[in-house]
UniProtKB/TrEMBL annotation:
Residues 1-10 have a biased composition (Polar residues). PANTHER family: P2Y PURINOCEPTOR 4, PURINOCEPTOR-RELATED G-PROTEIN COUPLED RECEPTOR. This is P2Y purinoceptor 4. Keywords: Cell membrane, Disulfide bond, G-protein coupled receptor, Membrane, Receptor, Transducer, Transmembrane, Transmembrane helix. The gene is P2RY4. Belongs to the G-protein coupled receptor 1 family.
Length: 365
């Protein structure tokens, strides 16, 4: 073994990773980089995420009401990101203290649970926005029925509950353990239960990431085909630009935050489960640890969606920053989607298509 390769490995000691020491008894990895990378990256995400999502929630609550369906999805997306970044100071301390967790087993379980709850709620809220945008562009009449704020609110409630229900086993898998004077907060579970955890994690990933990812890609593929067809009128041109921005932002979040994390985590878990060669295992471990902060970065990238797709949001944000006088609250519609007032007396019947329904409108946040 060359000197370069041997520098990657070390016996279990103060610089090794005791959190993952169950990988192989004779295979340890010097993860000194983790005790710098993770505290710094989580601290940056905390500052940026709170600074971006905090004002966003305030604007949605006090300056951008009433909400349409997409505004509801975006508010819940911002709420999910905010709840997550509020948990990061404990992880900053944990990794800065070199894997020492003094906050108790219950908080360890909750913080690890909150990470995946935010991650998959964000995925599903972005998927809801994508499907809603797809209906508005490709099936505007269906958008009148399925794009109501009441339905959006019920879907958001379902997202919170479904994701929480799927992640309940994580509360039983995640635990703490003691090694000398160090208390570890495991990201996975005990060594003897790791194979069961991999099966659980794979099922959750397929259901809460794989399926929404495919749905999002299909929706955006169909939207792109529709948007590149000739559309008359300036309003249609504005809708086209807004929709293309939405596609670009959401796909960027998936490409940077979600996809690398899930790929490297899957490879890492399989390498451990199959007891791969020690050198391969440690290379995979490094790549996985490097992509973990990327999954947290979605809390900072999601607000870009509101900035690029909402005229009223940008205007209210400029006023919040002191660039304009106060204005009364404005109706919030985030992506110029076809929408129908919640109190409309029009119903989805054959008679509703004979001209007596109100004309669909395209609002802008």
């Amino acid at each position: 073994m060359t000197s370069t390769e041997s520098s990657l490995f070390t016996t279990l000691g103060p610089h090794s990773d005791p959190e993952d020491s169950e990988v192989e008894p004779d295979c340890r990895f010097n993860e000194e980089f983790k005790f710098i990378l993770l505290p710094v990256s989580y601290a940056v995400v905390f500052v940026l995420g709170l600074g971006l999502n905090g004002p966003t929630i305030w604007l949605f609550l006090f300056r951008l009401r009433p909400w349409d369906a997409t505004a509801i999805y975006m508010f819940h997306l911002a709420l999910s990101d905010t709840l997550y970044v509020l948990s990061l100071p404990t992880l900053v301390y944990y990794y800065a203290a070199r894997n020492h967790w003094p906050f108790g087993t219950g908080l360890c379980k909750f913080i690890r649970f909150l990470f995946y709850w935010n991650l998959y709620c964000s995925v599903l809220f972005l998927t809801c926005i994508s499907v809603h945008r797809y209906l508005g562009i490709c099936h505007p009449l269906r958008a009148l029925r399925w794009g109501r704020p009441r339905i959006a609110s019920l879907l958001c409630l379902a997202v919170w509950l479904v994701v929480a229900g799927c992640l309940v086993p994580n509360l039983f898998f995640v635990t703490t353990s003691t090694k000398g004077d160090t208390i570890l907060c495991h990201d996975t579970t005990r060594p003897e239960e790791f194979d069961h955890y991999v099966h659980f994690s794979s099922a959750v990933m397929g259901l809460l990431f794989g399926v929404p990812c495919v749905v999002t890609l299909v929706c955006y593929g169909l939207m792109a085909r529709r948007l590149y067809q000739p559309l008359p009128g300036a309003a249609q041109s504005s809708t086209r630009v807004r929709s293309l921005r939405t596609i670009a932002v959401v796909l960027t979040v998936f490409a940077i935050c979600f996809v690398p994390f899930h790929i490297t985590r899957t490879v890492y878990y399989l390498a451990r489960l199959l007891e791969a060669d020690c050198w391969v295992l440690n290379i995979v471990n490094v790549v996985y640890k490097v992509t973990r902060p990327l999954a947290s970065a979605n809390s900072c990238l999601d607000p870009v969606l509101y900035l690029l797709t909402g005229d009223k949001y940008r205007r209210q944000l400029r006023q919040l920053c002191g660039r304009g006088g106060p204005r009364p609250p404005t109706a919030a519609s985030s992506l110029a989607l076809v929408s129908l007032p919640e109190d409309s007396s029009c119903r989805w019947t054959a008679a509703s298509q004979d001209g007596r329904c109100p004309t669909p409108r395209a609002d802008r946040l």
